[in-house]
Write a structure and sequence with these properties.
With 686 residues, the protein is of the alpha+beta class. It is built from 22 helices and 28 strands. The strands form 9 sheets. Strands 6, 7, 8, 9, 16 and 25 form a 6-stranded mixed β-sheet that branches. A 5-stranded antiparallel β-sheet has the order 18-17-28-27-26, with helices on both faces. It has a 4-stranded antiparallel β-sheet with strand order 1-2-3-4. A hairpin with a 2-residue loop joins strand 20 and strand 21. Helix 13 packs antiparallel against helix 22, helix 15 crosses helix 18 and helix 17 packs across helix 19. Keywords: Antibiotic resistance, Hydrolase, Membrane, Signal.
Length: 686
């Protein structure tokens, strides 16, 4: 270059400050151009929140997916079908774009899922909680984030083609114990008798079903229909038999029938099929009604208490079921995933997403160990309960025997006759108590100025407000006329008490019933009814109430409580459950005094000494005090009578009841005598 040319070139080169400014301007122009070509990406959070909501709802149709949303939704529903209606919550913990991710840009969402497996609002260890992550990719064409869905997004550890299965594992059910820790209900061996359809030709199944039904004495037609309706390889239970010395149908008998099968197991059972059954209750498969009322805590197939103490104390006795979540391969197209898995560790097979059959070992994803139930302790004396049941074993109408220990109110026996048909006549039935109620009326009379030696009139009939009342047929004529109150109790003179209603207010009778424990709110720890005595009856209703008819009601337990209060000398509150101890009943407004109780006890002695039930004089042991009762019922077209006897012997108070009999003395008297005599042999008066 010539010197002149060099000088020209130098004159065109900008100075250093000028070059710096030009470079900065160029950078700004480039950045502006890039910004114009690449718009700012939206926040991925809304897409991640939509994913969380979709997973919780089990519906991904509203989620922007990098794939087929309908197919993903179907996969999700199939995978979790084995968890049934279990509620779940899915929360988005955070979401952030991945630093340095290549095109397309990605973000990671972290999710927390909780399944309420036990259906309880509080966490008792039955909540299955886990974290998962989901990858979101940015779709530049749509200017939107899309979720890459995979099974492990919904369930931690879940693989393609797998489903879930929830298994409930029952703990050992708590025993029901009697006094002194005696086992009343405990696990006892049984045999499930049924037909295994996998072991019999389909053409022969109906014949086998009928043969098996006849062998175990059940309805053959009904059982054959049940077998026909069951699956091709189902075991169809016919009956469960106690596996004890009394079993007459043997395993060889059962298995001699094609498909017949006897499966040994244990069930919580009482010593015998009838032992205190209405009181203790039964255990069986939960009914649809129980499942619905449980609010999710009881599932179909669970064994629960169906009646009696087993139902009342279900939660205590059952404990807490264990929960396990297993993976299982999905079944063939059109069927739910995870159904029909045999048992833990069994190989399960199914179809994967592509329709290919797969075989895999189930994997356990979650476990809550079962907690065994806690024993329930009652006050029942096993031997005395058996005596009570034997006494009324031949009763041809609903009947009951209740025995209470007055000193502490413990219910020693609560027996129901066979024709009560599972109803707890002893503790919840409501009947007119007849003349046993005269013990209550006598207390009201004593408080109203009468004494045992007070002179009273006992005509054969008396009239009040146009209604005629009479004594029972066969009332001794030598005890008519002017007699003492003591004699009126001994001979059970109705007319004395009918006429006393003119002087003794009904409120005083109701107060006396409360003092004797008859109308207290039961505190037995079990379903119970004691008695009902209105305070506002007037006229003929009041008069009829005085002799235990009218509108007064009592259960055998209630009348045994009256006798127990007299024996103790203070108001007794009976209880059946010892552990956990029930809340004590409220004290009556007017407590029974020892002096009043002693007077009543002497009045009841006359019934045995020379009154309506002198046969009780022959009972060995301490002297017996008693009161008989007969209450007519029905419309009068038939001669129907409730029959009662209450008695005291030492530290034992008893009520015997037969729904339909001749009279308290003739029907109930012999039963009471038999019970008290046999109770002596098992220590009933200690």
């Amino acid at each position: 270059m010539t010197p002149n040319a060099a000088s020209f070139a130098l004159s065109l080169r900008p100075s250093r400050p000028a070059r710096t400014a030009a470079g900065a301007l160029a950078a700004v122009l480039v950045a502006a151009g890039l910004a114009a070509c690449t718009p700012q990406r939206p926040d991925p959070r809304p897409a991640a929140e939509a994913l969380a909501a979709g997973l919780q709802a089990g519906d991904l149709s509203a989620v922007a997916l990098a794939g087929d949303a309908a197919a993903a939704t179907e996969q999700l529903k199939t995978a979790v079908a084995g968890l049934g209606e279990t509620a779940r919550t899915v929360a988005l913990e955070d979401v952030a774009a991945d630093a340095g991710s290549a095109d397309p840009a990605t973000a990671t969402a972290r999710l927390r899922t909780t399944w309420d497996l036990d259906g309880k609002p509080e966490d008792t260890g039955g909540d299955w909680t886990y974290q998962t992550t989901a990858t979101l990719e940015y779709d530049a064409d749509a200017s939107a984030w899309r979720v890459r869905y995979a099974p492990e997004v919904a369930v931690a550890g879940l693989q393609a083609g797998e489903g879930l299965r929830l298994e409930r594992v029952a703990g050992a059910r708590g025993d029901i114990l009697g006094a002194g820790g005696t086992e009343l209900v405990t696990a006892r061996p049984v045999v499930r008798v049924g037909l295994d359809k996998a072991r019999v030709d389909a053409a022969d199944a109906a014949d086998s079903a009928r043969d098996l039904a006849e062998l175990v004495d059940i309805d053959a037609a009904a059982y054959a229909a049940k077998v026909k309706a069951a699956g091709a390889k189902a075991f169809v239970e016919a009956i469960v038999l106690r596996d004890d010395a009394d079993r007459t149908v043997t395993n060889p008998d059962i298995e001699a029938i094609a498909g017949g099968r006897a499966i040994g197991m244990t069930l919580p059972l009482a010593p015998t099929r009838t032992f205190a059954r209405p009181v203790l209750g039964t255990v069986g498969e939960a009914t649809a009604e129980i499942v619905e009322k449980s609010g999710g805590t009881v599932k179909a197939g669970d064994r629960v208490g169906l009646s009696g103490l087993q139902a009342t104390y279900q939660e205590r006795l059952a404990g807490t079921p264990g929960l396990r979540v297993w993976t299982v391969p999905a079944k063939a197209e059109g069927s739910g995933a995870g159904e029909g898995t045999a048992s833990d560790g069994d190989t399960a097979s199914g179809d994967n997403a592509s329709g290919e059959t797969t075989t895999a070992e189930p994997r356990q994803l979650f476990e809550r160990a079962a907690v065994d139930g806690v024993a329930l302790t009652t006050t029942l004396e096993k031997d005395m309960q058996e005596v009570a049941e034997n006494v009324i074993a031949d009763a041809d109408s609903p009947s009951a025997v209740v025995a209470i220990r007055p000193s502490d109110g413990a219910i020693l026996a609560a027996a129901n006759g066979p024709t009560s048909n599972g109803y707890n006549t002893a503790m919840v039935a409501k009947y007119a108590p007849g003349s046993t109620f005269k013990v209550v009326s006598a207390l009201a009379m004593l408080r109203s100025g009468y004494t045992p030696s007070s002179k009273v009139e006992c005509p054969q009939t008396t009239e009040l407000d146009g209604r005629t009342f009479k004594n029972f047929t066969g009332y001794p004529t030598d005890s008519l006329g002017t007699i003492t109150l003591a004699e009126a109790i001994a001979q059970s003179c109705n007319t004395v008490f009918i006429n006393a209603s003119k002087k003794v207010e009904m409120s005083a009778v109701a107060d006396a019933a409360a003092s004797l424990g008859l109308t207290a709110e039961p505190a037995t720890g079990s379903a119970s009814f004691l008695g009902s005595v209105p305070a506002d009856s007037t006229g003929t209703e009041h008069a009829a109430n005085m002799i235990g008819q009218g509108v007064v009601e009592a259960s055998p337990l209630g009348m045994a409580t009256v006798a127990a209060s007299v024996a103790k000398g203070s108001t007794v509150s009976p209880h059946l459950v010892a552990d956990p101890a029930p809340e004590a009943a409220a004290a009556p407004q007017t407590p029974l005094t020892a002096e009043e109780a002693e007077q009543l006890k002497k009045l009841m002695s006359g019934t045995v000494d020379h009154g309506t039930v002198t046969d009780l004089q022959d009972v060995p042991g301490p002297a017996v005090q008693a009161k008989t009762g007969t209450a007519e019922y029905g419309d009068g077209s038939k001669d129907l009578r409730h029959t009662w006897v209450i008695a005291i012997q030492g530290d034992l108070a008893v009520a015997v009841f037969v729904e339909t009999g001749f009279s308290g003395a003739e029907t109930g008297g012999p039963l009471m005598k038999e019970f008290l005599t046999k109770a002596q042999a098992v220590g009933g008066d200690d």
